[in-house]
Write a structure and sequence with these properties.
The structure holds two protein chains of two kinds. In chain A, a hairpin with a 5-residue loop joins strand 3 and strand 4. Chain A is α+β, with helices and mostly antiparallel strands. Chain A has a single domain, classed as Alpha-Beta Plaits, CATH 3.30.70.1060. Helices cover 27% and strands 37% of the residues of chain A. Chain A is flat and about 45 Å long. Chain A has a four-stranded antiparallel sheet with strand order 2-5-1-6. By secondary structure, chain B is mainly α. Helices cover 70% and strands 1% of the residues of chain B. The longest helix of chain B has 33 residues. The N and C termini of chain B lie far apart (65 Å). Among the domains of chain B are: 85 residues; 85 residues, Serine Threonine Protein Phosphatase 5, Tetratricopeptide repeat. Chain B contains 20 helices and two strands. Chain B is elongated, with a radius of gyration of 25 Å. The chains are: A alpha+beta, B mainly alpha. Chains A and B meet through helix 3 of A and loops of B.
Chain lengths: 116, 423
């Protein structure tokens, strides 16, 4: 078994303007994802909006700059994640395909196992 | 030279060695993929598996020259390669060194009289995994399913060997790091995953059929590899209609190869080809496959393309081509595979059913699509339609545009000749 991070990217503007029924349905799909894949879902969280993000960069000379906003500007921003446990990549991708992202998509990344 | 006399004096061992060398060469041509696929199952690593296969072939040269060629050379090679792979795998495990695993279910024990299952589909599906970039899938397939060297794959795609090496390394790393499994997808996933495999095989064939750039119109070797891959898939998945359709398409296209260029290497359009040069054995085989594929509706993309190719191949002459039937097939194809390239080919069929003016209107509509802006066939098709309508100046301008866009020298020569005819 190996762990994978599923990053959920969504278009916040479209989400903000969406009909409440869409948001409700999206929530239901998350509940269903957790219910259907309980054992494989190791963790996960929904994040507050990107307007709450602060990026911190440290230059080689040690200077630290703190700026308002996400690390890289994109239409779809990171809005949540799951950590899943799967025997192989196909199984991980099959799980990730069930993760809802109404106006965006998900990215799947294997997590390094420090004990390996 | 004294060696000739020496060889004559001991002709028996010499003949044996020659026999062994010939048998090894034959086994390399026909069994390499089978042996590699079996070794990869155990080794859990494509590179390690390849080393084991290399080793097995080297041992075969020695053993077969000494003991004679075994009754089943493929089984002999598979046993040797797999045992070596198992040994390496165990040693790596003992050293607790983590081998990149592509195998979730490695074979831990090999019984004495083990009948090796055909693992080639696992190999194909791993190389054509949709999580890999298409160009990486193609490179992996040529490298590990067809057994081409990295240098040969690089040459086939006109890139530097170092570039191809980096592409392959990156792809293998992704397979290992993400744990892409070495297995055949289950029934639910199979259609989607097989579509990816067919796309790779089709791309290999078409890259060989019409080289995008360079002097020769066909890169024969890639076309042959594409057909060999399609034949292999057909043997492994004999009931799949899309596989039958793809093999049919490659055979029906390949059947016209000898007629596609003249003695000076100049491009000859289907319209002007000497149909006596077509390979009628390939056509018959292709037709049979199309018929079989069409018996399982709905017809897939490659089956429809093959059915169109079959109608061309069956026509005794260009003027006797069944254009209404071809147009009907393009209508189906456009629904199944909506693409501007299909729409462009459909417009050509329209020109022979309804007329060049109707077709020109369609082509001009397609020209607004930015993805076709630099597609030389669009300009070439426009030019041909304008020429048929007698619009000489506009046709000349369109040929010039097509000439600017094509990188294939044979096609450029053809366009120049057409342009000269107009003036």
């Amino acid at each position: 078994m190996a762990k994978y991070l599923v990053l959920i990217y969504d278009d916040e503007q479209q989400l903000a303007g969406a009909d409440p029924s869409i948001i409700e349905a999206n929530h239901e799909r998350h509940v269903a994802f957790n219910r259907d894949n309980g054992a494989a879902v190791v963790g996960g969280a929904q994040l507050k909006g990107s307007e709450t993000a602060t990026s911190i960069r440290t230059r080689p000379d040690g200077t630290v700059t703190v700026t308002d906003g996400v690390f890289a500007e994109t239409k779809e921003v990171l809005g949540g994640y799951y950590v899943i446990d799967a025997p192989d990549y196909d199984a991980a991708l099959a799980l990730a395909k069930q993760v809802p992202a109404v106006f965006g998509g998900v990215e799947v990344r294997p997590i390094i196992d420090p004990g390996a | 030279m004294g060696t000739d006399a020496a060889a004559g004096a001991s002709s028996h061992p010499g003949a044996r060695r020659a026999e062994a060398e010939a048998a090894v060469a034959r086994a390399h041509a026909s069994e390499w993929t089978f042996v590699l696929a079996a070794a990869a199952r155990v080794a859990g690593d494509l590179d390690a598996a390849e080393d084991c296969v290399q080793d097995a072939y080297a041992q075969a040269l020695v053993h077969w020259a000494r003991d004679g060629v075994p009754a089943r050379p493929g089984a002999w090679l598979t046993t040797v390669a797999t045992r070596r792979a198992l040994e390496l795998h165990r040693r790596a495990a003992t050293l607790a060194r983590k081998l990149p695993l592509l195998v979730p279910d490695p074979v831990d024990e090999l019984p004495e009289a083990y009948e090796f299952p055909d693992e080639r589909l696992r190999l194909v599906f791993t190389c054509c995994h949709p999580a890999l970039a298409l160009e990486a899938q193609v490179a992996l397939t040529l490298r590990f399913v067809c057994g081409l060297s990295t240098a040969e794959v690089a040459r086939a795609f006109l890139v530097k060997e170092a570039t191809m090496q980096a592409r392959l390394t990156r792809a293998k790393k992704k397979i290992a790091e993400t744990r892409i499994p070495y297995r055949v997808p289950d029934a639910a996933e199979l259609p989607e995953r097989l579509a990816a495999v067919l796309e790779v095989v089709h791309l290999v064939y078409t890259s060989g059929h019409t080289a995008a750039a360079g002097a020769g119109l066909t890169r024969l070797d890639l076309a042959e590899r594409g057909i060999a891959l399609a034949r292999m898939l057909r043997a492994l998945l004999p009931r799949d209609p899309d596989v039958a359709g793809l093999l049919a398409l490659t055979l029906l296209t390949e059947a016209r190869r000898a007629a596609r260029t003249d003695a000076d290497g100049r491009l000859v359009l289907l319209e002007d080809q000497d149909r006596a040069l077509w390979n009628h054995e390939l056509i018959a085989a292709g037709q049979q496959l199309v018929e079989q594929a069409l018996r399982t509706p709905p017809a897939g993309r490659y089956t429809l393309m093959a059915a169109i190719a079959a109608l061309h191949d069956e026509a005794p002459s260009w003027t006797e081509t069944d254009w209404p039937q071809i147009l009907a097939l393009y209508d189906l194809l456009l629904r199944r595979w909506p693409s501007t390239v299909v729409a462009l080919n459909r417009a050509v069929a329209v020109s022979f059913v309804e007329g060049p003016a109707e077709a020109l209107a369609l082509v001009d509509g397609l020209a607004e699509d930015p993805s076709l802006a630099t597609y030389p066939y669009l300009a070439a098709t426009r030019a041909d339609l304008l020429r048929r309508l007698g619009e000489t100046d506009a046709a000349a301008a369109a040929y010039e545009e097509a000439l600017l866009l094509t990188a294939n020298e044979v096609e450029a020569q053809f366009l120049s000749a057409r342009l000269a005819d107009l003036r």
